[in-house]
Amino acid sequence: MSSVGLLVERGRGFGGVGPMWLLPVLLAPFMGSFLGVLIARLPGGEGIALSGTSAARSQCASCRRVLSPLDLVPVVSFLVLRGRCRTCGAPIGWFHLVIELAVMGVSVWVLAVETEPERIWLDCGLGWVLLTLAWIDWRHFILPDVLTLPLVLAGLVANSWLDGEWPIDGAIGAVLGYAGFRGIELGYRALRGRDGLGQGDAKLMAAAGAWVGWVNLPFVMVGAAVVGIALAVVRGEGLSGKVVIPFGPCIALAVWVVWLYPMAVVELSQAWLAWG
User: What DSSP assignment string belongs to 46-83?
Assistant: First the structure.
């Protein structure tokens, strides 16, 4: 089955979800708490795994007290402590609360367009990883291989599971996505003498191709370009050659929209073909 056909088969709306709809939303803050740790620590190579060492455990940034489980309950702890450390009273900062709420938002978004429980979790997983990558790139201008490369494999496995056969479209999409962006990167460097796109962008585009297939990859590329232009304009930086914006969030949003709204992609494809 083609990527378009596979995507069109996906359900729509809250109807038919049943009691399963609540679980992704309830678990989302806990996932958000973990993703917040990834966002904060991955770029600097800090410890992430739970261990007995304080270096790998959450601490107050001010007094360095290792936080207890009661201090780490997503959303609730922040509200109960009024955004301050229990020991020294230093402000905790809004980052973790915002990321926890953002992950909840992704879950609600999925539930608004998906009906089948298995695909709800699949969509949530994709959305959570894309959100993490976008956030890291926005703050640090990097897309860690530890997230982008598994996302490529996950896209192939997901489509193989959904389609019941080898994900040929996804494999072709992954190759074309990576090769296309690497070509743009090398061409830009040759013309301008400096980097324009990072290799992380190419790897994320490979993941995009693995998830949506080569047929839908042009929509991701065009969508990401439109978002990037809009972002530059909103930030008041114009479209000069000196504008520097993280492109990962643009790709992530485009992948997310193409994956969640396949019917819109099909309609655009048909309109494109008819116009051509």
Answer: ---S--SSGGGS-B-TTT-PBPPGGGGSTTHHHHHTTT
